[in-house]
Automatic annotation (TrEMBL), chain B:
This is Histidine-containing phosphotransfer protein. Its main location: cytoplasm. InterPro entries: AHP1-5/YPD1, HPT_dom_sf, Sig_transdc_His_kin_Hpt_dom. The modification Phosphohistidine is found at H81.
Amino acid sequence: MDADNKVRRKEVLSSMCDERARMLQDQFSVSVNHVHALAILISTFHYYKNPSAIDQETFAEYTARTAFERPLLSGVAYAERVVHSEREEFERQHGWTIKTMQREPSPVRDEYAPVILSQETVSYIESLDMMSGEEDRENILRARATGKAVLTNPFRLLGSHHLGVVLTFPVYKSKLPTRPTVEERIEATAGYLGGAFDVESLVENLLGQLAGNQAILVHVYDITNSSDHLIMYGHQDEDGDLALLYESKLDFGDPFRKHTMICRYHQKAPTSWTALTTAFLFFVICLLVGYILYGAAIHIVKVEDDFHEMQELKVRAEAADVAKSQFLATVSHEIRTPMNGILGMLALLLDTDLSSTQRDYAQTAQVCGKALITLINEVLDRAKIEAGKLEMETVPFDLRSILDDVLSLFSEKSRNKGVELAVFVSDKVPEMVMGDPGRFRQIITNLVGNSVKFTERGHIFVKVHLAENTKPVADTKAENCLNGGSDDSVLLSGAHQFKTLSGYEAADERNSWDSFKNLVSYEESRYDASINMTVAGETSQSVSLMVSVEDTGIGIPLIAQDRVFMPFMQADSSTSRNYGGTGIGLSITKCLVELMGGHISFVSRPQVGSTFSFTADFGRCKKASFNETKKPNTEDLPSSFRGLKAMVVDGKPVRASVTRYHLKRLGMLAEVASSVKRAVSACGINGSSCGSKIQPDIILVEKDSWLSGEDGDLSLLMLDRKQNGHMFKLPKMILLATNITNAELEKAKAAGFADTTIMKPMRASMVAACLQQVLGIWKKRQAGKDTQNGSLRSLLCGKKILVVDDNMVNRRVAAGALKKFGAAVECAESGKAALKLLQIPHSFDACFMDIQMPEMDGFEATRRLRMMESQANEQMNGGDTDEGLAQKSEWHVPILAMTADVIHATYDKCLKCGMDGYVSKPFEEENLYQAVAKFFKVKPISDS
Amino acid sequence: MNIVNQLQRQFIDFSTSLHREGFVDDQFTQLQKLQDENSPDFVVEVVSLFFEDCEKLINNMARALEQTQGVDFKQVDASVHQLKGSSSSIGAMRVKNACISFRSFCEAQNREGCLRCLQQVTHEYSLLKNKLQTLFTLEQQILAAGGSIPVVD
């Protein structure tokens, strides 16, 4: 842009300069031509005419009148050529002497050129010898040699003091030949016509006529002498735009002289807007970029600072977290120690004679203290997990019995709520696995505890299977859908029921019968192949189990589902008000599951229920170590039921499977019938057709099925029973129920069911006990007199036994029975009395304790007794052993609970209080024998 | 000898009828088996204990149920429980069954039902007492006549 501008500027300058040069040249040549004409005039009228037609007057007048033709010439004059020989003649003729330029009489020379004719404007030069001036002389010589107009160097003119040049034309006397030589010209020369050009005013004039005069500065130089330029026009000191100038050649018709015109602009080129804006923009951009860089730098510095700050904060936060965990661990521990003291003292306080109010206060304090200890343990667990200090045990344990134990803990609660509680463990799950039974128990307890807490109706179902089995189930499930889904939908009294354990809808459909059935059948189909499979299965060292706990409770609100596993978070603040708890349980559970190499997840729908599932890795247990490592707390399931056939009558297939699972654990073969009618036809108890069909020893009837079944079916059963005659072949009928009223019980008995009802939740040991009770009598009848009588006698003979019962009659009967087997019996009528008798040292070999007693029940008495014993043991181990004590290594009197209802007396609770077992009341020899045999097994041998 | 035989038959018939009519069950038989030369009066002893106990409990219950307002069902229930325990211990089946329905009324806090049951229990108790007294008298007579008490299975 700028370059364009420059080019255009230069073009304008050159055109202007050329124009001026041309005009100047034209005007000049016009004047020169006129002078030329004048020269011809003089030669014509002065020399060719004789006498001369021109004198001074005529010349002056003529020149004055034709002056307009020569605007550039200040004046013209004619000087005649006078050789020295003619000087005197000439001076005489004119009447004056030839003078030099300095107006002095001319010295003697070869030749003179005195002015004889002159224009009035320059009349002062008349009689002056033009050849006396250096410039003019040279001019004259050159002019007569060339015959052309010649110019002098510029010089200050005499009159005006303007710079000017003098133009000289030769005037010849005679006509010259066409090609005259220089000598011929000199010979013919008669005189010289000269005129002074006032160049300054000429140019001034000229420029004044042209546009753009102000814009440019013009100088005219004589450059004949190339080293020394003589200025003809313009002020030397005027300097315009020095950067740009233009030179035009001038030809004034004198080939000897060279002239040039130089033009430049008056002012420098105005700087262009584009340049300005560009510069400005560039500046702005630079500024912005600079600012951006500055900002970025500042930002980077700030971010770095922030980062450092964050890092420091993170380090501090982590340190605080560690400190918090340590603090929690320490404090929990520190709280536990005094809490144990408080609880111990409270226990001792309860021992003393207290009024009932005082006792109530103390007991409340004890309950609260225990709750606090539980909470502290949980917090300690949590802290331990956070600190990474929780280590997992790896010992073999029986998963099924742990599940049974946990269920028994909640059986009371669930039964009170009318919630069905059940457990199912897949056959593929190994009997014994390696892992941490305590922690596994804790997880299950937490989950089931939660479920029990939040469930008011329906069921809670714990299911365990191999994690790898879930996949084929999913496949078969999809297949099932393709085939058209369920073909035998369960419709009970017109309302659709979900095929879950209790018929209530569950959040996760995985446990519904459609898939569950597949799981079971899948396992059965693999059962044949399992012989081969086990070889492959045993080789892998670990087994991954999938445990799910399903409930039909209130569910978890959708918004709260994200933070279920966060510690101290409950669904909302009202939860802890309504249901209690700290919300720490699930977070501990999650940590424990993760420590077991699994993960936990859940599906929950509000008002429908929740299903928590977790996987966990356990080690496989080598078969050889089974017997040695069996933990003392694992219940031995009696093997006496092996091979018995059972028929389960239950309309709900999932529940039936659970029942069957428990029966299978006892070694029984179980068949399922969906209704009583089907059971009747399947059993083949209907008269003659018994040959091909199975003959169950026991029929287990679910209460729902029994109640919904028609009376006709039952009476049919009854009828068959009576018709059949031979009593021993008849199956026993046992009722299964979650809760049952006495009226229903009576009705059941009337319908031919056994006295004992199996109350849910089912546990293998409990089922075994019930079956024993039902079948035991039957067996006795079958086998006649019990052969174990003698052995029982051998066991109990000579033993000193304490019987504790508040009921006098019971006491007497129990004592009588024991005495009969040779035992020495003492009686106590209350827990307190028993404790007095059992003050250490004592000589009792065993204690039979009634559970339900006023003031101090059997459990409480046992707890105290155990406390006493442990104190005594400590003392004994600590100090010197007394003589009497030295015989026994440790005090531990076997205590057996006596209870009328075997079913409700949970084995677990007995064990928890420190009891060693239980016997049914009134005594049955077999039962008694089994219970007693555990403790006295060794002694008869050592005695004998 | 004739008298002894006659008495023995009478004894067997009577105890069979006791079983058949449901006054006593297997447990009573077991109790009888426990009686031997070391404790010759075991059954009588236990049964009289039972009767004493029963009377006491029945009186307690009657007293508790006399109140028209604010009957202490808990106490009644405890008594019934005791009674049930003792009756099942000696095998007094009808008393025991009466106790079972009694307890359900206690749970329901139904005073009318309780009173009815109490009446029934009292009735059963006195019936049983009469029957057993007859039985024991027979036993005494057999022993006095120099015979042995037959074992009823």
